[in-house]
Amino acid sequence: MNGNVIVGQSGGPTAVINSSLAGVFRTAIDRGAKKVYGMRYGIQGLLDEMYVDLSDYIKNELDVEILKRTPSAFLGTCRYKLPAIHENQEIYDKIFEILDKLDIECFIYIGGNDSMDTIKKLSDYAILTGKTQKFVGVPKTIDNDLALTDHTPGYGSAAKYIATSIKEVIRDGNGFSYRKQLVTVIEIMGRNAGWLTGAAALAKGEDCEGVDLIYLPEVPFDTQDFIEEIRELLKEKSTVFIAISEGIRLADGTYVSEAGGGSDYVDAFGHKQLTGSATYLANLINHEIGCKTRAVEFSSLQRSASHLASRVDINEAFMVGGAAVKAADEGDSGKMVVIDRVSDDPYQSATGVYDVHKIANGEKTVPREWITERGDYVTEDFIDYVRPLIQGDYPCVMVNGLPRHLYLK
Ligand code: F6P
User: Are 64 and 33 contacting, i.e. CB atoms less than 8 angstroms apart?
Assistant: First the structure.
């Protein structure tokens, strides 16, 4: 490599997004990049010429190791949609002016389906105008909703946190189960895809009964059926645990979170903030059935719990970061790195690259056949798919009793 590399992070963070950043940094240096720049706050920050030289922050192997274990976007993130090229060419001219000034050869963007829109537009613009920079995306999202990749970095660790925390919530609730009814509703992120909510099924095992019901956004939610299912369960047991996706919708398409008041906030990509469904449903159960209820919303904890990250996930996140630099350095552009599952037992994966135009702005949802007919749980195929992704630990570097993070002021 003769020139420099610039890398940005975009969209909702994960527990392992910085492992991908570390992978980009390491491979860029190994392949001879003179400098590896980091965009502050993704493309939005870059437009304001906010960037850092990563060598000023990642100085040795220990820094790399701590970065891999640091949750959330080290560089800062954004949800920023570039306008269509014909709508505002000036923005593109400005970005390429900055890239030329920094002698950028490879532009790497770590993000989800919305962020891949940025790779798509910048690579299209480069082709249109004869620019030589290469643009490659690195997959990332706890939602696991990117097309053409077996799964996305960030998903396995969030799934591990969710299954672990649900086991703990069940232990807590069952302690009070003598002559007392309790229904706990647990709300899990994932927007319109139920991958993460389905991971709640992993809580079930030899030492845990698991959740009783799981509701994904892929199947319309019927409030009356929901209440009746709980009534039936309470005839047999005193504690009921239910996992719901933040994105469950009624048959008419209304999000349950909207029905419950929710939030009016809408981001640059038109996504509504989905929150409050568990509280709404817990209150509804209390009103209809009269028992004690509890709502648990994992919120940002599920995407930042690096203390419980999966080793498979951290390693794959690092691997895809490196693969993106290699691909760009070898001439690929307008592509995203994907993870291919090579085998399940033992679990093995490899990287490939795909046209980002087939990935950007799409949403891969859970196949209907991986959800039970009643739409209230996931099947064994789903569980077999996700279980390998939560394997292994990646212990934190502990200082003074707490995990150490790499921090950019
Ligand atoms: O894109 C990942 C995600 O974590 C979704 O699951 C969730 O709906 C969204 O981000 C929340 O984003 P924010 O924190 O910006 O509200």
Answer: no
